[in-house]
User: Fold this.
Amino acid sequence: MKEEIIFNLKQVYQRIEDACKLSGRNVSDVKLLLATKTVPAQNIQIAIEAGEILIGENKMQELRDKDSVLKDLNIERHFIGHLQTNKVKDVLKYVTCIQSLDRISLAEELNKQLQKAERTIDVFIQVNTSFEESKFGLPPTEVIPFIKKIKEYKTLKIKGLMSIGLLDVEKEKMRPSLHLLRKIRDEIYTAEIEGITNLQLSMGMSQDLELAIAEGSNLVRVGTSIFGNRFLGKEIWNENIAE
Ligand SMILES: *Cc1c(COP(=O)(O)O)cnc(C)c1O
Assistant:
C-alpha cells in the first residue's frame, strides 16, 4: 500500500504540473487536498509522511474515528461534505476550514458555536454549478446576496468558492460547470463587496483536475487517484447523501 500511495501521489503531482504548464499557470498557485473519506487513518498517515499537509473529510464520524492517529500530525483538516447543523459543534473540534457552506442556517449555527468558543474559521461557499438536483450547494444566482449576508458574521473568514463539477466521460460536458465557478468569482469581484478579495477556487477531483486547473482552480481535492477506489459494500461515490 505504501509504495502505491507514494507512486500515485507522484502521478497526481505530475498531472497538476502538466495542467499548469498547458494553461500557463504557476504550479505554486494550485494546492492539493487529499479527499480521504473511507480511507483508513494509516493510509492517510503514509501520505502525510510523504509530505502532504491538507486533508478533507466528509463526515464527522470519520473525523472522530481517525483523530487519535492524525491529531498530533502537522496537518490541516477541512470539512468538505454536507454539514448538518446538529453536527457543527463536533466538526469544529477537528477542522480549520469548512468548504461546504451552502445555506444561511448553517452560517448562523457556525457563528453561534464559534462565538461561544471565541474563535474564527475559514469557509468556502459551495455552489451547485452542475445544476444537478442531487448536489448540494447554493444556486449560482444566490451567491452574491449570500456573501453580503454572511460577511456580517465576523467569525467566518470567506476564503473562496467550492464546487463539485459535473462528472462525465466526455470532457466537453465537464468543462462548463468548472468555468461557471470562475465566472461567479469574477461577478463577485465586479460587485465590489467590501472586504471580499482574493477568493480561491476549490474545484477539480480525480476525474477533472486538469480541466479545473485550466479554469483557474487553486485547490484540487483528490481521493481515488491517490488512495484507489472506495468500496464499502457498495461504492460510496460523491458524498451527496446526508449522514
Ligand atoms: C470524494 C470527494 C472528492 C474526491 O473525489 P475523487 O473522485 O475520489 O478524487 C472531492 N471533493 C469532494 C467534496 C468529495 O466528496
